[in-house]
Amino acid sequence: MRIGFLASHRGSNMQAVLEACAEGRLDAVPAVLVTNNRSAAAIQHAQRGGLGVYVLNGLTHPEPDALDIAMHDARCTMHSSPPGAI
Fold first, then answer.
1. pTM here?
2. Which is higher by pLDDT, 65 or 80?
3. What's the pLDDT tens digit per position in 37-61?
4. How far is it, in rounded angstroms, from Cα 18 to Cα 65?
């Protein structure tokens, strides 16, 4: 099972899940992080884990419909290879 994360700050829960996956305690493949905060510490955790990272917020997508579409597109990447940082 591929999994994705939403985080705004430290991403401590995401980090615990990443560690559980790496240690074989959780049978899942971390795939993507979506954050609304370009300076979130969670981004570094995700990048070290090889996850795709999307920073999506009102600054990156001022139109609400465009933000919704970007969130959908980020979710869809969970079913493909991680795209890297955007």
1. 0.86
2. 65
3. 999 999 999 999 999 999 999 999 9
4. 31
Cα 36-40-46 angle, rounded to 5 deg: 95
The helices-and-strands tally (H runs, E runs) of the chain is 3, 3
Question: What is the amino acid identity at position 21?
Answer: C
Q: Within 13 Å and on the Cβ side, how many CA atoms surround 85?
A: 10
In angstroms, rounded to a whole number, what is the distance separating the alpha carbons of residues 54 and 68?
13
Tell me if the domain spanning 2-79 has CATH number 3.40.50.170.
yes
Alpha carbon distances (Å) from 68 to 5, 72, 85: 16, 6, 19
Nearest to 79 by CA among 16, 29, 40, 6: 29
**Using CA atoms, how far apart are residues 69 and 85, in angstroms rounded to an integer?**
18
